[in-house]
Amino acid sequence: MVRDAGAVAMLLVLAACSKPGGTVEQQAQNEQAANATQAADDAGPMIPAEKAARAAASGANDNAPYYLKLQLKEFMPHVMQYAGDGIWKRQGFITDKTGEHSLFPKNDREWEDAESAARTLAEVTNVLLIPGRRVPDPNWDKAVLEVRKVALQAADAAERKDQDAWFKAGSDLDEACNVCHKQFDPTFKPGGR
Fold it and tell me: Is the pTM of this model over 0.85?
């Protein structure tokens, strides 16, 4: 049987609108709120900054179906830290029984990977500014934008294959992360990644 894709899409929209909860937009909004509430219940208590972010989001007019199940205490190590490690793991030197070895990118492919890691981190900062994650404090925005700025500096250094600038960006990233953690994470311990 041949089906018209437009007709099938219209039927799906009509079916969704006829379900309890109203329009597709209302259903997405209801699902987002339910997901956020369930996430809070599943993961235990939220840090104060996240409570403020969730409270601010509840009054926002943004109806996009953001995924907010991960609390910040899980988002930071599993997403932000992971993205930052894409930069840090490509910097510095290690010494073992065979001598000193550079961790810096050594060829075009490795520099391309380094640039991609830095651009990924820059893009991930956007997630900290969406409703439900964005803390309603100008210092939050400032801290997030500083991490983004450093990530973009790292991307530029990688694109130019500038080892010194790449290394400096890693140090600057560490400092930018620490500044944010000191202010917004009451469990923060310097060097405790």
Answer: no
